[in-house]
Amino acid sequence: MIQDIIDFFNLSLIKTKDINLTVGAVVALVVAFVLTSIVLKMIRRIVTRKLPSEDKNKFISIFQFIQYLVYLFVIMFTLNASGVNISVLLTASAAIFLGLGFALQQLFQDLISGILIILDQSLHVGDIIEIEDKVCRVEKISLRSTKAITRNQRVMVIPNHKFLSDILFNWTQNSTVIRESVSVGVAYGSDTALVKQVLIDCAKNNPSVLKTHEPLVIFDNFGDSSLDFELFFYVDDAFASPNVKSDLRFEIDKQFRANKISIPFPQRDLHLISKTIIE
């Protein structure tokens, strides 16, 4: 009886000079597939347990790609352990795998970077980021790339490996509130206390400036042609901050005119020395 079972498992389904696929190898392969599937499901549940629902769906799509690689290795290992000589298959496909490895190197970097972004929670949809001197809002994080919209409504498709290799400023990772500033120069001899008060009032009266954070005025420098001030204020929409700064400049110019505070233009004094030639 036992010998019959052994003979059955040793029965060859495919037999050539280099390959001998038996019933036992097929059974071992099926068992390995079932066990691997159970282990992968447990790993997926553990990893996605604390992820937000949006990131969880992204990770599942990435995890499916990882599953294909795992199943490939399971097939190779199981067949080799069952006595099937897979060296012939590996030798024949080695050149193909090597070429694909070089060709898909950038793709694998993007995929790994995408996984790290999701697990590390360093980037979310809606974040305001600055990369390569461009400010944009993240619209979609996919398996290979991230789509973002710039302030002039242009679409940026950013390969995910950029977030690991380049410097990235995430303006809203800690909070949606950011500090912005407007610089202005006034003429020498101006009432600096009045300038400070006018700048603060302009910030407080702007509806887009947060009332929960007090604006601040810094006397920045004695410039070549002006006394330089900088107005700091807080907003909760970093994407719209250029509009807020523009509105503040209009209002500052209006209030300066009303309070007779002049904004000078650059000036240079030229001293001409004449020489009288006596013959």
TrEMBL record:
Topological type in the membrane: Multi-pass membrane protein
Limits of the Mechanosensitive ion channel MscS C-terminal domain: 182-263
Record-annotated Mechanosensitive ion channel MscS domain positions: 107-172
Keywords, sorted A to Z: Cell membrane, Membrane, Transmembrane, Transmembrane helix
UniProt keyword Transmembrane, yes or no: yes
GO CC field: plasma membrane
InterPro entries associated with the record: LSM_dom_sf, MS_channel_C, MscS-like_channel, MscS_beta-dom_sf, MscS_channel_2nd, MscS_channel_C_sf, MscS_channel_TM-2
Annotated transmembrane regions: 19-40, 60-79, 85-104
One GO MF term: mechanosensitive monoatomic ion channel activity
Cell location: Cell membrane
Keyword Cell membrane applies: yes
PANTHER family: MECHANOSENSITIVE CHANNEL MSCK, POTASSIUM CHANNEL RELATED
Family classification: Belongs to the MscS (TC 1.A.23) family.
Protein name as catalogued: Mechanosensitive ion channel
Organism for this UniProt entry: Flavobacterium piscinae
